[in-house]
Each structure stands twice: as structure tokens, then as C-alpha cells.
Amino acid sequence: MASHIVGYPRMGPKRELKFALEAFWDGKSSAEELQKVSADLRSSIWKQMSEVGIKYIPSNTFSYYDQVLDTTAMLGAVPDRYSWSGGEIGFDTYFSMARGNASVPAMEMTKWFDTNYHYIVPELGPNTKFSYASHKAVTEYKEAKALGVDTVPVLIGPVTYLLFSKPAKGVEKSFCTLSLLESILPIYKEVIAELKAAGATWIQLDEPTLVKDLDSKQLDAFSKAYSELESSFSGLNVVVETYFADLPAEAYKTLTSLNGVTGFGFDLVRGTNTIEHIKSSFPAGKYLFAGVVDGRNIWANDLAASLTILQALEPVVGKDKLVVSTSCSLMHTAVDLVNETKLDDEIKSWLAFAAQKVVEVNALAKALTGTKDEAFFSSNAAALASRRSSPRVTNEEVQKAATALKGSDHRRATPVSARLSAQQKNLNLPILPTTTIGSFPQTVELRRVRREYKANKISEENYIAAIKEEISKVVKLQEELDIDVLVHGEPERNDMVEYFGEQLSGFAFTANGWVQSYGSRCVKPPIIYGDVSRPKPMTVFWSKMAQSMTSRPMKGMLTGPVTILNWSFVRNDQPRFQTCYQIALAIKKEVEDLEAGGIQVIQIDEAALREGLPLRKSEHAFYLDWAVHSFRITNCGIKDTTQIHTHMCYSNFNDIIQSIIDMDADVITIENSRSDEKLLSVFRDGVKYGAGIGPGVYDIHSPPNPLH
């Protein structure tokens, strides 16, 4: 029985690639040094999977920024503003597209499906010229082969690439990117031919858009594309991989009817309904890559349950055609539990990071062949039982409080128009007030102080003095710049979700559980393992201190419950909305304490509200109902004169604007610098939006200064 990994984390167990990228961008290291770090990481990953016994090991899942940008480079689809003159795309052009440069802005960045991972959105038009401009897929396949590892090169499929593109600036918004299918397929044929010539026997084409609600024209594009590629597939085994959700019936039928395809990969963790499709109509003689090991969470797999699913599928597809796989790329989870020193043994026994999931995949594959590792399965069962019975998981008081929320929509009693009037009288702000989203750059010295305080190397008194000095600098700077609503800069925080999670019960934290968000940006998601509550105030001390330094309004800065949920590894033993309601109640207490402490403007960030939207429209209403309700819970009991802000970024929320209005915030701030103002246009085109809005004009993730 074979085993397969869809993809693997890129950053390295201790963020080696992050530091190499940043050193290169800062001019402190050469391209050769960056390439060596990346080659060492790839070599380590391939060898690790090979030693475990994985048969189908992926290559070309490594990226210097993101895999969609890699595909744009492969196709030579470089926007004119980057002045690319042809040939193999180098780092200068590649990173200019991702980050911008001194003269031109970056391409738009948005969320990859419903994850916290981001991709660079391709900009296409009827005059886009395509050429084979990046040989990365072939180069990395040869690199692995030279190490004695035969890999499965992975490409973003042609239809998914086009569906995740947008019309370039100056192109009619109605332009259909799918009309370019015939233009990009010749490039795919060249890549496939080179991979075959290099010795590849399998390739993987990722077409995850098949899990979305597609119309007949979009589904027909898959049939057309793979019919055109069929002759190129001759002599190759081709697996088309999907992930993140169930496939609708028509999409499943389209996929399993594609010409020239050897096997199909499905997410059977988030797509359990797909199992019924497989049982009723799986094509004879094809391979099934069964994604039973969760690639998006860190909980140990229920090996017995997964084995039962696999055993039920085995007679349907055939023993020699069933491949045990991850549900999606492991890039969405942390790298290796071996690197963890902060987690206690009990919680650690409940978890599996990427390295452990590779072992789980192989253990399941062996069990199907009759060589079950009884000790490994027994240890897994014991860990699952420990988690179910642990008193650390359940807090009856919290459960009761969350249950009591039923029957109220927790809406502020006064309409937003009246509240804004009361707030203006209270705050006396100008017609166009200015503010910033919150955090200021963190210096090396500040990070050192925070690190030493956590390690008990400096006293609490000295730590408070250092943070107070930093806040004072930030307040003075904003006053000099004549900013109207100030922030304290958040010098006491390394990461906004981690900061709050560390002060809430039911959370655990890792030492090296880093996950890539985009480029060199890594986050260390908290682990929500139990019921959530707030033992004591979290930000009130610092906010009151900052307010005492100025006569201008000082914003209290909080992360909203939906964002904390969506940017954490969430417990999988109860519905997500129940956990979100618990977090909302904890944030509600903080909001009320901030107001009581004299803070009159409170920002509750919900940057990830859109991110959690299910991929299928039939599931949108339920999610938006509890997500928006959770936000309203946080501030339903405060005075009309207290102004509530929220913030959203790097998401397309055109289709959920009514839910955003329903959040009933007084002011919303949005990303507006990398999206051609399309997010701002949502609020003025046919929508009755009566609250305040703050369009962000400066992209902190790009080098160019918008004032130039």
C-alpha cells in the first residue's frame, strides 16, 4: 500500500528560509547564499520523507514566496510595469512582483481559499504574452533525483490558475481569464515534456477550485484543458489533487471523467461527503489518493477511525490503487514536535506536526498491507483517550455562559447614526480624522527586553519602565504628526493572537510551531485545546498608561474572537462556533474594563472574518450568522459614546458586505493600497453603509512610500 504527501512546510523547523530571505532583501547576503539555504531545506525534507517510507514524495512545493507566483513566473505572465525583458525570471523581477520596488507597487495579495496563507494574484488580459520563463519545477525534480529521491513534481493546475487570476489594470472587469486557457496550455506542455525527459514518472496537478461552486462553463474548462493535455500525459502517471472541502456532485463527475488522468486526490477530513461519491461511482482502474490525515490542524490522527475509512474504500478502488495521503499540503501546519520545549507532555501527546503526520500516513499505509504497528496504534489510542478525559479541557462555568447566549442577538440598542453623533460630541474629531491600524515597528532592543523579561532576566519593574519609554516615544511621534486618534504601538506584543492567547485559559503555545503566512511572514498559531475564559484584564494596564500621556483619544487594541479562532489551531472536539462564543465572552469582559478605565475608542480587529467563510455558498449563512454574532457579543454592553472600530485586510469581502454592516461597528478600516480601491468601492456602490470607514492608504508590507 502506497503513501503520499501533498506538500510540506517550506520555512524550515526554525524559520531558516525566513531569515535567509530577509537577509537577501536587506542586501546582507547574496542570491547564492539564499539558494544554498533553500537547497539544504529541500534536501532535508526529501530525505526525511524517503527515510520514513513515503512513496510519492512531492517536489516543486518549495517556494521563495508562494506557489501561485511561481506559476506566474513559469508562464512568463509578468505585468508590464516590472519592465521584464524576457528570458529566465530572476529574483529581481520575482520579488518586485511580490513586494514592489522603489518605483512600482507590488501585485495584489489575498487569502488562499479559507486559510491564513496568502498568494499573489495574477494580473491577466487579452494581450498578456506567455512564455516558459521559469524552469523551477524541472530544476527541483533533477535536484531531488541527484540525491537519490524520485519525486512527484507538483504544478498548480491550469484552470485553477486562471480562476484565481484577475483582469489586469486597464482591462475590462468583465474580461474572462478562462479565455486564456489555450494560451497557457502550450507552456504546460513544455513543462510536462521536460519533466518526462528528466525521468519523472508521476506528476501532480493541483486543481482545488473544483471544491468551489463552479458553473457549467468553468467545469467545461477542466474537460477542455485535460483533453488538450492528454497527449502530453502519455508515458506519465498524473494525479489531480483537490483539497479543503467536499466536491459537489457535478465537479466530482467532471474530475473523475478527465482524460489522461491516472488518479484523483481528495480531502477526506473536510470533505467527508466525498466518500459517498467515491463509494457510488469511482472509475475502475484509477488511483485514489485518500487524504485522511489532516494537513490543516495539529491534532494527532485518530488512526483507528482513519483505518476504518480506508478499509471501507479498499474494495471500491482496489488494494493496489488505494494511496494513503494527507488531506492537503502540510504547509498549513507546524514542522516538527521534536523542536517543542514549551509544551507539557500531556498536551504534546495529543498533537502531530508535519513530521509526525508523515509518520501517521506511512503507519496507515503499512496497516492496510497487514503490517500494522500495534504499539504505535495503541499509543495513539491512549493519547486520544487522555485528551477526551482530561479535566484541563472542560470548564462547566464557561460552557454554561456560552449556552446562555442563545435567545439574544446582542446588538447595541442605539442605531449607529445616533452613536456616531454622540461620539463626535464626546471626541470632537475633525471631519476626516486620521489614525493607524495599531502596531508600530519593533526594534531589536524592544525584542531583547521582551525576551529577557520572559526569561526572568530582568525585573518586572525594569520591563514596565522600558515598555513605558517605548509607548512615550510612539505617542510623541503621533502627536508631532498630528494624528487624531492615537495608538500605543503595542510594544508589549510580539504577535496579536499569541499575545491574547497567552492570557486566556484553554490555550497552549509552542516554541517553534511556525507556519508561513506569505513570503517571509511566519505566524505561530496558538493551540486552543480547552474551554476559553479570561482570568484577568489583558490590555487595560498598558492602554490606561498610554492614555495618561496624551489628551487625544487613545485606542484600545484588541483582536476579535473570529480572528483569534481562525488564526489558531482550533480544538476539533466541539463545533467551531462554540469555541468562538467562548472567546467572544472573554473579549467582552476586556472591552468593558477598557471602557471603565477611560478608553473611549476601542478597536476589535476582525482581519480574518472573511477568511473563515466556507468555500460553498450553501454554508455561508450559518458561518456568517455566528461569526457576526460573536463580534457583536464583544461590545453589546458599552455606552453610545464609546466608539468601536474593526479592521479587515487582504480579503475580498464584496460578497459579504451585508454581514459586515450587520457587525454594527462604528468604524471599519480596510486595506486599500494593493487592491486598486476595489474594496473601497464596495461601500459606495449600491450599499447603504451608515458607519465610518477608514481606507488604508499605506501598505506596510511593500517598500514603496505612497507619499513619494
UniProtKB/TrEMBL annotation:
Residues 3-315 form the Cobalamin-independent methionine synthase MetE N-terminal domain. Residues 432-704 form the Cobalamin-independent methionine synthase MetE C-terminal/archaeal domain. One of its GO terms (biological process) is methylation. InterPro entries: Cbl-indep_Met_Synth_N, Cobalamin-indep_Met_synthase, Met_Synth_C/arc, UROD/MetE-like_sf. Its cofactor is Zn(2+). Pathway: Amino-acid biosynthesis; L-methionine biosynthesis via de novo pathway; L-methionine from L-homocysteine (MetE route): step 1/1. It comes from the Eukaryota. It catalyses: 5-methyltetrahydropteroyltri-L-glutamate + L-homocysteine = tetrahydropteroyltri-L-glutamate + L-methionine. Its EC number is 2.1.1.14. It holds the Pfam family Meth_synt_2. Keywords: Amino-acid biosynthesis, Metal-binding, Methionine biosynthesis, Methyltransferase, Transferase, Zinc. GO terms for molecular function: 5-methyltetrahydropteroyltriglutamate-homocysteine S-methyltransferase activity; methionine synthase activity; zinc ion binding. Belongs to the vitamin-B12 independent methionine synthase family. Catalyzes the transfer of a methyl group from 5-methyltetrahydrofolate to homocysteine resulting in methionine formation. This is 5-methyltetrahydropteroyltriglutamate--homocysteine S-methyltransferase. It comes from Rhynchospora pubera.
